[in-house]
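Pasting as-is:
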Amino acid sequence: MHLIVVGLAILGHGMLWIGILNRLHARAIALSVLGCIELFIIAWTAIFCWLLFSYGINSNFGIEALPFPLKLYISLTLAILVLGAGHLAWLRTRPAPSCLLAASGHCVDVVDQLGFIPTGSGLGSLLTSASWNECFKLEITHKTLRLPRLPETMSGFRIVQWSDMHFTGSIGREYFEFVAEETRRLAPHMIVITGDFHNTWECRDWFKTTVGNLKAPEGVYFILGNHDLRSGQCNLLRSLLQSFGLIYVGGKALSHQTAGGRILLAGNELPWIKPAPVLDSESSIIAMGEAEFGRTAYALRLLLSHSPDQIAWARRHKFDLILAGHTHGGQICLPLIGPILCPSSYGTRFAGGVFELGDSIMHVTRGLSGGEPIRFRCLPELACLELRTTSETELYKRSR
C-alpha cells in the first residue's frame, strides 16, 4: 500500500509543478527568474522523492511517520492527481466544435521531398536525425470554419497561418523554404504569421528566402512573439520584414478592403510586447489614425495573437476569428495523455486545434518548428483555413 501511495504522490507532484511551470511560461517573466524557479522545482522534486522512499520503503514506521506538513503536501498531490485525471478525461472526450465543418490533412515528409535531411548546426541539430523525431514530418491541414457573423460575400475566403518558426540554425533554412513553396501551392487569399520568427539574429539572412517569399492577393500580415523580443532585435526584425512587403499589425488595428467586404485586422502580442490594440467599448477603432467603424461595418474581425491566452480580451472586443500559436501543440504528446508541456495560463486546454467560444472562433496552430527541434506524436503544422457562413452548415452536414 505504501508503494502505491508513493507512486501516486509522485505523479500528483509532477502534475502540480508541470501545471505551475506551464502557467509561469505564459507570463512575461525574465528567463533568469524562470531558470531559478526550475532549479528549485528540480531540487524539491529530488528531496520529495527521497523523503517518500525513505519513509515509505526503508523505514519501519512508513509514511505515517512523516511530519504533518509533508503529509498535508502528499494529500495535496493526491487531490491534484484526481482533479488532473478528471480534467484530462474531459479534454480527451470533448466533442469537436460545431463551427468546424470539415477538417483534413496530409503529412509531407520533407526529407523525402528534398532528398536530404535539412539539418543545421549546433547541438540541437543532433536531435533532428533521431528516428523517433518527427520534426520534418510536416502536416498540411485544411479546416473549414463556420463563422456566425460572416456575410455571404466573404464565403470561401482562405487564410494560411504560419507560426513559431524559431530560426535557431538547428533546422536548416531549406525546410522553411520548402514550407514557403507549399504555401504558394495552397493559393490563399491572405497569409498571417503569429510570431516567434527567430531565436537568434544570426539567422537574419534566412528571412529573404523564407517569409520574404510569401505572397497573397490580400496581403501578408504578422506580429511578433516572446522569442522575437528576447532576441533583442525587434525593431530590426520589423523593419526587415516590412521591407519584403509584410504588414505589421502588432499593437495595431487597421482596416483592409477586399472584394467581399472590409476586414478589421488587429494584433495582440501581450503579455510580452505592449500595448494591445486600442478599441472602444463598441469594439470600434479609435487608434492608429483610423476612422471609427461600427460592428456592422466589417465583414470579418480578425485578431492575430501570439498566445491563445488573449482569448478573453478577443471575446470582449467581439472578434470573429482569433489566430494564435505559441504552444507548439505541446511538441511531445504521450499516448492516451496528449500534450504535457504547454506554456499557457489555461494549461493544455488550448494546446492546438479549433475552439468555439460563443460567437468567437479561435484556431491555435501547432507551429512549424520550436526552440528545441523535437516533435513526437505532434507534427509541425501548416494550416489553411477556409471561412464559410452559417447558411452553409447544412450543406456541409449533408456532404459528410
